[in-house]
Predict the 3D structure of the following.
Amino acid sequence: MPDPVPGRGPLARLIDIQPGEGRALAWAWAYIFSILAAYYVLRPIRDQMGVAGGIENLPWLFTATLVGMLCLNLPFAYLVKRMPRARFVPITYRFFAANILVFALVLYAAPPDWTIWIGRVFFVWLSIFNLFVVSIFWATIVDVFSNEQGRRLFGFIAAGATVGAIAGSATTAILAKNVPTWGLMLCAVVLLEVAVFCMRGLAALSSRLHEVPGSGARDGQDGTIGGSVLAGVTRTFASPYLLNISLFLLLFSVTSTFLYFEQAGIAKRSFPDRGAQTAFFASVDLAVNVLTLGVQLFLTGRIVNRLGVGLTLAILPAFSILGFAALAVWPTIGVIVAFQVLRRAGNFAIARPIREVLFTVVPREDRYKAKSFIDTVVYRLGDQVGAWSFTGIQGLGFGSTGIAGAAIPLSAAWLLNSLWLGRAQDRRQTEAATEELNAAGPSASLSRAAPSA
């Protein structure tokens, strides 16, 4: 079967794809499309349930989410230690699919007075689900694609996530007022099974993908990773590089939580009907994802090639400084919503795929264990800090202006952290290339120096 995306053509010119990468790119697209479509079918349901349960209870829901993350990381690390990727990834996705079936059954059969508590449990569960399934996807992608391929292709792969998010958001926005919640949940179950199928298709091409010139060799990718169950925690705290990735995610999460709470308050004041609230959240998601898609398809790869990893990562914190400053001066509904849409689009289109490039230069055990710990526990720790800080600032009598004022210095620290990570990533990549060249011996150096035929 020929490669569906040849090395030359419109798509190759758009994203600089090399011969032999097309089929893997197509599987990766379908994989993340399914994951994000499933999540965005469920996300507006979660947001509506969070509002219905009371804005004042959201900090407690974030606390429960952090506890859930801590509880799930250890069994996941055990699976990574004992099983190859082809087994532990499907097991994890099907575990979450079974959870969705339980929620659908409970919502179908439960009496109306149970709705609030079911909603609170679902809010916590989906907050855990989202980070785990997406983190596992990117861990697989980082394991399959090299650093050089990541810089070229991760933005385009992330566009598959955006298309899936648009499809999921649109599905819920159209059907939410006429289809019961449990019916929407069944759609997400099917999409997760599609994701498992796509992951296996991608994994089957991993060895061929590493034969692409310039991709870099990687050995033992299909075997059991081994190591310690606690390696995700211990290796993160032992590595300044991983600690700074954690700081990047922590600062992003804290500032994102500030904006999320503002948006939730706006929705509750503006839309008293639950169906209208769900449709509002889905419409915001849809606007974010349409904007994100255009940037991912046409700009992300060019931006990172022009600016490098560090300056590209610094774009989002720099924009956040400007956005929070605008919010401090004009604390209006329009500014909050516009800032939220633009900031989320900047994260999905630029910061998220380039952040994943940072993990291409760490050992394989860290790509799954440390990455999972950072993407889930550290991220939700940031939610926790942001949620209780938001509550504390409001308790002191400060409104949007006070919240924005607290977020500006955090965003400035985040910007400096981004620049440090960019330099550290470049240094690690250079060291890895030098080690590979030395291991190959003098003949490899001569072959690389020789002109191509």
